[in-house]
Amino acid sequence: xxxSDDPALDAMLNKPxxxxxxxxxxxxxxxxxxxxxxxxxxxxxxxxxxxxxAFLRWKIVSDTSLTADDLG
Length: 72
Fold this sequence. Notes:
Elements lengths: L6 H8 L3 E8 L2 E6 L4 E6 L2 H11 L1 E6 L4 H4 L1
Parallel strand pairs: 1-4
Antiparallel strand pairs: 1-2, 2-3
């Protein structure tokens, strides 16, 4: 994150541009704009989608891409 001496500028530079959800869609993962739930991106790699979101300053507000099987 960028930081400057101006708090207003900091708030503008660090504010997320979009709120999105990351979830499974069959064998793939999707990023959907929230609250519209329109799909913006699709990939077989959830990590790649998380990186794209960070680069674009999209905040992931819901991430249901992992299941109990993935954790255990």
